[in-house]
Amino acid sequence: MRRSSVNRFKKIVKVLGSYGFGYIVDSKFNKQNKLPENLRKAFEELGPTFIKIGQILSTRPDLLPPDYISELSKLQDRVPPESIETVKKVFFDQFSISTTDCFKTFDEKPLASASISQVHKATLKDGREVVVKIQRPDIAEKMKTDISILIRIVKFTKTKFADALIDPEEALHEILLTTELEVDFNNEVNNMDKFRDFNKDITFLYVPYVIHDLSSTRVITMERIYGFKVDDKKNLLIGHYDVNDLGKKLALSYLKQILQDGFFHGDPHPGNIFIREGKICFIDFGIMGNLSISIKSTLNDMISAIALNDINKMISALLTIGIRKGYVDRNKLYEDLDYLIVNYLSTSLNNIQISVMLSEIFDIARQNNIRLPRDFTLLIRSLVILEGVIASIAPDIKIIDIAIPYVKANNKFSILTNLDFNTLLIHSYSFMKDSFRLPSKIIELSDSLISGRAKLQLEHKNLSTPISELNKGINRLVSALIISSTIIGSSTVLNSNIGPKIYNVTIIGITGFLTAAFMGFWLLISIIKSGKL
């Protein structure tokens, strides 16, 4: 480690320890109350990189419990802006041209300042108004260093997380990958282009354009959006907007992103959704979700399972996309999902929140050692945010009311859309090859059963505790028999009055009684301590 990294390592450990997380590194520390709140405060004290790490963690309910997710969602980018000299230097380093020569005007006071970048408004030479998002210098290297330090801390303390469903080191490597994508602004530019292409035929949706010649790894220049936030009730009233129609359009747009495109906005809070000239306009494409064909199909199946009262379909859908991280008791999983679905099916659709339902499915999967894909957990969080936005502007609109007819009308998405011919060919070949082997395998199994050579392999689960208790019980029974035998033998010796004596009492008999008394006392104490009299 370089000297600067060593100093940073010490600071991180010191700050985490001061907020009650010393137990992770040293067992002599005790866990404290208010840990979720303290974690947020620790991240705020550790600066911009940890604020960003915390914001990423707040999108991952598969990594942290709900109380931590809720607290980290409060993290705000209250970061002082970089000097205008620094901003201009970053721009010049990227394009070899100064802001003065490139723009007609460039406002030196930032519109906003966040942990990774800050935004300035500007005017192009042709008169178009734009915003320029410029990355802080060295932020990528700082984030990589801080996450690498956290990985080192976790490596030292792996035993503390032995029962975790997800390996914390693996989780941190995932976060490192996420941050690397976020600090490369080319990814955000590509996201905007892809999102615009997917939604080019949606008349009520607007996506800002990008100035590609003035965008790079560390700079994005894009159209400046005028309008107001989607939950600005005053402007909605002044503009005579039909809020129910707006809520439906917002829900339909998001359902299309999820179920048809498989490419959705990962942070749909009111600050990222504007109303521009009567159209819905999404901004900030740094966090986007990508759903595979399998996950899209599964989501279609989940929603149609509710519509058709099909519990087995829901269970099959969950097992299709889930990653098993340990023993899965299928009976328990079936019972948990059965209870959940029956609960929902007995409720009016008007009372169902799709985000809450998916969150409960996620919790059931987690309790049954099944990990759901990262983008599925991002989807759940995004739906929670979006349902809150829709509820604030159109309380009578429920996403589930729109989702079920949408799935029924677009059921083709779940079967043949985006079918890859090469993938189909590979799976077909594999299926045919296995099919040809099936008759010989059946004959082989039959021969084994007839000749008595078939073996049934059983694996016990969670039997270690009962077996241990049985062993203790047997040991106590044997001890009791030995004590009884010693007492009977000593009584016989006393009655026969043989062997050396003291005060005319045989020493062998007395010794036997004392030994039996000691063993009996020891046995009684062990039974009392076990609490099982």
TrEMBL record:
Signal peptide: none annotated. Pfam families: ABC1. This is AarF/ABC1/UbiB kinase family protein. Keywords: Kinase, Membrane, Transferase, Transmembrane, Transmembrane helix. The keyword RNA-binding does not apply. InterPro entries: ABC1_dom, UbiB_kinase. Belongs to the protein kinase superfamily. ADCK protein kinase family. It comes from the Bacteria. It comes from Clostridium estertheticum.
